[in-house]
Each structure stands twice: as structure tokens, then as C-alpha cells.
Amino acid sequence: MDQLIEQIVQQVLKELGTTAHQAEQGLFNDIETAIIQAEIAQKKVARLSMAAREQIIQNIRTATLDNAALLAEMAVNETGMGNVAHKIAKHELLAAKTPGTEDISTQAFSGDHGLTLIEQGPFGVIGAITPCTNPSETILCNTIGMLAAGNTVVFNPHPAAVNTSNYAVQLINKASYDAGGPENIAVSTLKPTQETGNTLFKHDMIKLLAVTGGPGVVTSALQSGKRAIGAGAGNPPVLVDETADIKAAAKHIVSGASFDNNLPCISEKKVVVVNKVADELVYYMKEAGAYLVSAQEAQQLAQTVIETVQGKPRLNRACVGKSAQELLKKINIDSDAKLIIFESDEHHILIKEELMMPILGIVRVQHIDEAISTAVRLEQGNRHSAHMHSKNIDNLTRFGQEADTAIFVKNAPSYAAIGFGGEGFCTFTIASRTGEGLTSSRTFTKSRRCVLGDNFCIR
Ligand code: NAD
């Protein structure tokens, strides 16, 4: 049967004019062919030993490290967003700290009636949508976890980052080939569109969706009728109370909010600070590399970075992921600052929107109660990430509970959440909407109960 499918596929490939070279590297003109190839590959992956999967994963880690600088430069050139040095760091992080097969464990129960195992198996072929903000990082990190669990994956990469994303797919297939593994463990299309994304949402061979992106695409996936892991938008506030180490808080916030020009969904996107320490915080943020603009300059920035389309505000994509220096130049300020800060109330458009630019609004409040309610409102119900600088355990606990986010970083830069200078594993897919939280290999498994009656209990 498998042989027959393979013959049909080769014929289809021939008719579609997809070259053998592209097929070997996991790239296809047509999403339908990509899905069929991933289905064939999944049958082979499911039969691989865990050691063989781990060898492929090891090769993916090595290829990621070897190509970190190239992928970082490709992404910045192709998307016009982000910072090469920080993107290199993200690739190094994922190579080192994305969990592999060790993340998948078996549960056992034994007793008078025998032995029962709960084992984690693959879903099969996963359909994945990836963002332009962390293009190759998401593809490499997703593949490590999905492959460890025995799946293959069809990517519909963001059209603005198609070359970088597809280069990562090629590296993955070469890593598999070099380890003696199957081809097409991860596949992609050469011309991704919303339509090809929708094909993934509806295709019978796709058993699970993993969607990393803004609210629109996550909602579409959740309406598809398939099981979906929805890693949606973040808009994290960072709260600073009067008990915090203000100098350290300022340094951490500037580092987190300027990292990769504020592209990551977890980055600090607004500050809520208790009035008593607000001046000190601004002072130390400036010392740490932030540039404070006036209310009028903030207004000019807002007119530059936000457009109005059909009466609604929309990010000017030409400004997303640009450096503070470039953004300041647009309002005729010359500075080599890492981050732009300004003060306002919580209703300022630059405070409400998820900007993904190194522009951070600061909202002063009178006390911790007001700080918590303001920060919760500003997170806008995404339940994605919230951060806090404080030494008061009660305040930390209250904000953690009320924010109710997948990520809550305390007294560190936001990126500590994904294991960068913080404990814990790395991921670029944080399933805030659907509740899996920080995804890893085990997220991409399904549970099976395997029961043996009246035997193998040797107690
Ligand atoms: P985006 O939503 O613009 O694009 C993501 C992908 O979805 C693209 O491939 C796009 O073409 C496709 N798409 C959009 N609407 C679609 C639809 N209706 N049907 C099918 N496909 C559709 O996101 P982006 O600009 O690349 O990334 C930024 C957004 O993603 C931010 O909101 C950020 O917070 C979020 N994000 C979340 C995580 C997370 O782990 N939760 C990680 C990275 C980015």
C-alpha cells in the first residue's frame, strides 16, 4: 500500500513539475503535494527508534548553530525587522534548550490486575503556521519537538519571511538525510498564502494544527474543526512597585523591551509604575540606554508608526521591528538609544497597541491596587505574558493571580521566560489561547492507555 502511494506521489510530482531537488529538501510548489509527502515521511518517522530520532535532532541542533548568523542575517534582510545579534542569540538558545525525546515520558500503574501504561504517541502530520517575527526560530524549534514525538510537519510560513523559513526547512531535511533518516520530515510550500494556510486547516491528512501568529490566524485555526494549538498575540505589561530594586528593574526592562527590536510576543510592551518610584525608574532607564521623548514627540511617533485604515488604527508595517535609532530618525532625533520611552495615561494609542517596536509607554499610578488593575486591563485579555519587579511576595502573588497569563516573569528581563538567562526550556510557540502554555515535544503527542491484564505485576 505504501509503495502504491509512493508511486502515485511520484507521478503527481512529475505532473506538477516539482523537481526532485526541491522534493528532497522539503520544498514544494504546491501545498497538497507537500502534505502527501509529509504523510509518507510520517509513516517512516513513526517506525524510527527514539535513538534515531534523537540523532536527527542532534543534527538539527548542529545545523542551527552552524547557520545561526546566516539565518539571522537572512531574516533581517528579508523582513526588514529585528536585530542580527539578537537573532543569532535566539538560534543559539533554541539549539541548546529546545527539548527533544527526553521530554516524552510514560506513566505506569501496576497492581493485582496487571500493568497499565500511558504512553505518548504522535498525532501524525501536523500543520503549522509560523510568524515573520521569529521565522526560522519557530520552524526549527517546532520541528525538534514535533519530530521527537514522532510527527512530521507541513509549514505554511509567513509570506514576508518565506526564504528564511524555507531555508530552515532545507536544513532540517539535510540534517535528517545526514543521520540516515527519511526525507520530508518537515515540508513547506514555495508560495505560502492565506489560501494554502486554509488548505492545512481543512485537509484530512492534517491531524493537528500548531499556529503561531496574531489573533486572526489563531481564530481561523480554532474555527477549523481540527484540534489546534493556538499561540496567539501577546501584549505584556511590566509592573514596577515601590519595593523593587529600581536600578535593576530599569536595566532588565530596557534589555527585554529592546531585544530583537521588541519583536518577541513576550517582550515588555508597556510599563505600569507606582508614582513613588517612577522618577527613579525613568532616570535609571535612561542610564540603561533609553531615550525619553516628550508628549508631543510621542504624538509625532504615533502618527508615524500607526496608520488609519477604514477608520481603524493599524501598525505601519514599515516601522515594525525597526531599531529605536531608525524610529527616532523618523521624527528628526539623532540618538543611538536602544529604546524609546515616554509617559502617558493608559489610553495612549502607543500604549494600547501591540507595537512590536522598541517604544515603551510608561503609566504612573498611585498604589499597587491601581497598578494591578491597570496592568491587567492593558494585557487586554490575551492571557499571554505579564512581568513584574517587586520584592513584596503578596504583591507578586496578587498580580500573578489576577494577570492569569501563560508567562509571569519576576525580577528579570522578559526573555528569561524562554530560558534566556532564566531556568527552563526554550520555545517560540507559547500557546496562550488554548492553554498548553510553553510548548515542547510532549505538547505534540496524544495519550494512549495500554493495558495488560493480570500479569507483569511482580510486587
Ligand atoms: P500574523 O498573524 O500577521 O501572521 C501569521 C501567519 O498567519 C502568516 O503566515 C499569515 O500569512 C497567516 N495568516 C494570517 N491570517 C490568516 C488567516 N485568516 N488564515 C490563514 N492564515 C493567516 O503574525 P506575525 O505578524 O507574523 O507575528 C506577530 C504576531 O504573532 C503578534 O501578534 C505576536 O504576538 C504573535 N506571536 C505569538 C507567539 C506565541 O508564541 N504566542 C509567537 C510569535 C508571535
How would you sum up this structure, described in words?
There is one protein chain. Helices cover 43% and strands 21% of the residues. It has 459 residues and is of the alpha/beta class. The protein folds into two domains: 246 residues, Aldehyde Dehydrogenase, Chain A, domain 1; 188 residues, Aldehyde Dehydrogenase, Chain A, domain 2. Strands 11-14-15-10-9-16-17 form a seven-stranded parallel beta sheet, with helices on both faces. A six-stranded parallel beta sheet has the order 1-6-5-4-7-8, sandwiched between helices. α7 links the parallel β4 and β5. α4 crosses α5, α5 packs across α6 and α7 packs parallel to α8. The longest helix is centred in the first third of the chain and has 17 residues. The two termini are 45 Å apart. About 2% of the residues have low confidence. The site of nicotinamide-adenine-dinucleotide has 27 residues, from α9 and α10.
